[in-house]
Design brief:
Layout (H helix, E strand, L loop, with lengths): L1 H8 L2 H14 L9 H13 L3 H14 L4 H13 L3 H9 L7 H13 L3 H14 L4 H13 L3 H14 L4 H13 L3 H14 L4 H13 L3 H15 L4 H13 L3 H14 L5 H12 L3 H12 L7 H16 L3 H14 L4 H13 L3 H14 L4 H14 L3 H11 L7 H14 L5 H11 L1 H8 L9 H10 L5
């Protein structure tokens, strides 16, 4: 299973093997490698998404061991995955032992890729018969079908296999994984719980269960599952720690989320992500100074020109904007734009900061540049420009843009309506009552928030307007 590969790749012996290989390809030293060692290295690169490096390792393996069956099969599969089925078939046909089990599986995979579903199933059926209908053979066939996105066919094989082996652990694993992939979550949860009854200390099963609950946004249950992983493995479980931290972040418990990000930072100090996330926790807790401290620490170790660096610069810009230090905010936005010069939202952020400093013409130039740079998301850009206009006192222009965007499916109503209500209140628009009634129906909390009003359940638009008048909210 992929989980077992991942565990092997973390072991010192593989890390030493990989270091020797990378020394060799960098021209530093010369080493000899067995074919199995090179295929392991290729598997590692493939799991990291480094397909070119994976194929380079396989090419080297075949130069040293030209008839190695595993390397030939792996190379053919790599060619297939990378969109070269003709080359894959040529390599496959060159293999001497055409009856080898893995060769038959790869031939089936090529048939699936060319939509020869009947022929592929017939070949797999022949293999199953030759192997006396073993449970492991069923599991391998199901995994092959799932990996090749043939879930409908896989489901039929699952039914047949489970009917023959209702309590087989390997088959249950394959079925659970397939159901999770298809978002048949109830069935997947049932099967993973069955597996945990057999092996309650399996961190793999707990993690898979946690992933399902996370996808269902049942964050409390996800936390419980991932905390079992941590209880079994201690803090040496990077994925589970991050998952728990992210769950707490998603439910708005930023203090607990920060605690877990801090644990990750202690155990994996070379990673910048936890520092960034701790900064975001402080942002959400209203502690901008604490956020700046974490973001500043992160910038000392983060790779130059990385996505994370741009994210930190943009967050720093927002913080200094809130502090009223708009010139400093522009400096940080410029740093983010250095990494992503055509990013429309960053260009609008800079335009907003220029507008806050009274540099109207320069701001408008940036807004127009943003609209030109991302024509596919022009509605999103217009909405952000309207918010900037509103925050800088240009309510008329903001209202004009928001009215253009009203009922546009590209902008969620619950985001747009509160701003539109505020504009219409300030401008004493005749549309206010109708707009406010819609907003109270669609997004009551956000509507009260924009006016800083205490929510009143079931309140009518007329009643809210009267409250606004009594409170003398400026219009």
């Amino acid at each position: 299973m992929k989980d077992n590969f991942a565990q092997y790749f973390d072991k010192p012996e593989f890390r030493s093997l990989l270091a020797r290989y990378e020394e060799m390809i960098n021209g530093e030293r010369s080493f000899y490698f067995e074919a199995t060692e090179l295929t392991d290295i290729a598997e590692y690169y493939a799991m990291q998404g480094e397909s070119e490096l994976a194929e380079a390792a396989l090419d080297y393996a075949l130069r040293l061991h030209p008839d190695n069956l595993d390397a030939l099969i792996f190379k053919a599969r790599a060619r297939l995955i990378n969109g070269h089925p003709t080359e894959a078939r040529y390599i496959l046909d060159s293999i001497g032992d055409q009856g080898d089990r893995e060769v038959l599986f790869l031939r089936s995979e090529l048939m699936l890729a060319s939509q020869q579903y009947g022929q592929a199933e017939a070949l797999l059926r022949t293999l199953l018969e030759e192997e006396n209908y073993k449970a492991e053979t069923y599991a391998d066939i199901i995994d092959l079908l799932v990996d090749n996105e043939q879930t409908d066919i896989a489901n039929l094989w699952i039914e047949e296999a489970v009917g023959r082996y209702p309590n087989d652990k390997t088959l249950t694993e394959s079925a659970a994984f397939s159901y999770a992939l298809q978002e048949r979550f109830d069935e997947a949860i049932t099967l993973y719980n069955q597996l945990l009854d057999i092996d309650p200390y399996s961190t793999f099963y707990w993690e898979e269960l946690g992933k399902i609950y996370f996808r269902r946004e049942e964050f409390d249950k996800a936390i419980e599952a991932f905390e079992f992983v941590i209880a079994i493995n201690g803090n040496e479980c990077h994925y589970a720690l991050y998952a728990v931290a992210n769950c707490y972040f998603n439910i708005g418990n930023y203090e607990r989320a920060e605690e877990y990000y801090h644990i990750i930072h202690e155990h994996y100090p070379e990673t910048v992500d936890p520092l960034f996330h701790m900064g975001m926790c402080r942002v959400n807790r209203g502690d901008d100074d604490g956020a700046i401290d974490f973001f500043t620490q992160a910038l000392t170790t983060i790779p130059e020109g990385s996505t994370e660096q741009a994210q930190i610069y943009s967050q720093m810009s927002l913080i200094f904007s809130r502090k009223g230090q708009h010139a400093k905010a522009v400096n940080y936005t410029n740093e983010a734009l250095r990494i992503y010069p055509k990013n429309a939202e960053l260009i609008i952020m800079k335009g907003h900061e220029l507008l806050c400093q009274g540099m109207y013409e320069e701001a408008i130039d940036h807004f127009l540049q943003a609209l030109e740079s991302d024509a596919e998301n022009i509605e999103r850009s217009l909405f952000l420009i309207s918010v900037s206009m509103l925050e800088n006192g240009n309510c008329e222009m903001s209202h004009y843009i928001l009215r253009l965007l009203k009922d546009n499916p590209a902008i969620e109503a619950e985001i747009l309506y509160p701003y539109l209500c505020y504009c219409e209140w300030v401008l004493r628009s005749k549309n206010l009552r109708d707009t406010l009634a819609e907003a109270l129906s669609i997004c009551p909390q956000k509507t009260y928030d924009i006016f800083s009003l205490t929510p009143a359940q079931g309140e009518s638009a007329d009643s809210m307007i009267e409250r606004l008048k009594q409170l003398k909210i400026e219009n």
